[in-house]
Amino acid sequence: MAEPGARQRRAQERIASSLGEIGFALPGSLVWRTTACGKAGCHCRDDPPVLHGPYLTWTRAVAGKTVTRKITEDQQAYYQSWFDNARRLHRLVSELEALSLRAFEQAEGSSRR
């Protein structure tokens, strides 16, 4: 089996270094939502409806189920870097997986020759 090349090692070291720079990471999505309450006579039932909100919500998967929580704009400002870190973390992990797959294919392809 062939070892990964110098370029692949440098790429892996760069990714590992970047992973080490990531702080707290919150998974999920931030979305502004409007809602209808369903109370008879409420303006959200008018034609056209005037919905409640908008409300900022944080949605994520927990144990295979979707969990949604309202957050304030102050909370968004405070935790935004954590949401950004989660996206960066996923991007770096995907990059490392792709690099690893290429290294595997090269190693296995060269050992079969």
Describe the structure.
By secondary structure, the chain is α+β, with helices and mostly antiparallel strands. The protein has one domain (6-111). 49% of the residues lie in helices and 21% in strands. The chain has two helices and three strands; from the N terminus they run H-E-E-E-H. It has helices at 6-21, 73-111, and strands spanning 29-35, 52-62, 65-70. The chain has a three-stranded antiparallel beta sheet, covered by helices on one side. A hairpin with a 2-residue loop joins strand 2 and strand 3. Helix 1 runs antiparallel to helix 2 (73-111). The chain is elongated, with a radius of gyration of 23 Å. The chain starts with 5 loop residues before the first helix and ends with a helix.
Summarize the structure.
By secondary structure, the chain is α+β, with helices and mostly antiparallel strands. The protein contains two helices and three strands, in the order H-E-E-E-H. The chain has a three-stranded antiparallel beta sheet, covered by helices on one side.
Strand-helix topology:
Layout: H1 6-21, E1 29-35, E2 52-62, E3 65-70, H2 73-111
Antiparallel strand pairs: 1-2, 2-3
Helix pairs in contact: 1-2
